[in-house]
Amino acid sequence: MNRFNLLPEFEKELSKLSKRYRSLPEDLEKLEKLIAINPTGLGKNFTIIHHGEEVKVVKARLACKNLRDRSMRIVYAHDNNKKIFVYIELYFKGDKENEDRARIKQYLKKI
Question: Which CATH number describes the domain made up of 3-110?
Fold first, then answer.
């Protein structure tokens, strides 16, 4: 059984973006079903940005019903041994160009 956890920063981003894009919680559930089967995703919409022995950090495009294109990005970590997913960052591609590398490094230091 996989568990999905959220960093506090991610929760704030999700709350803020959910007000603008109402389908986001439902879209996130669909992503969870997909990555529960294949943790690093499939195809060009998933990129592994950190490949450790136990933990992989993946940046993915998140299809949002309220957006006609795939402009939402999500960064998550997957611990293969513990079967845990941790959502690190969520952002709209139009608002922010790239992921927050400092936040990812900070998360990796904690584990």
Answer: 3.30.2310.20
Domain boundaries, the chain: 3-110
Q: Identify the pLDDT of residue 2.
A: 75
Q: Which residues of the chain have pLDDT under 70?
A: 1, 69-70
pLDDT at 70: 62
Give the residue carrying structure tokens 């299809």.
Answer: 63
Nearest to 27 by CA among 60, 58, 59, 65: 65
Q: Provide the sign of the torsion angle of the four alpha carbons 55, 71, 14, 8, taken in this order.
A: positive
Residue 66: strand, helix, or coil: coil
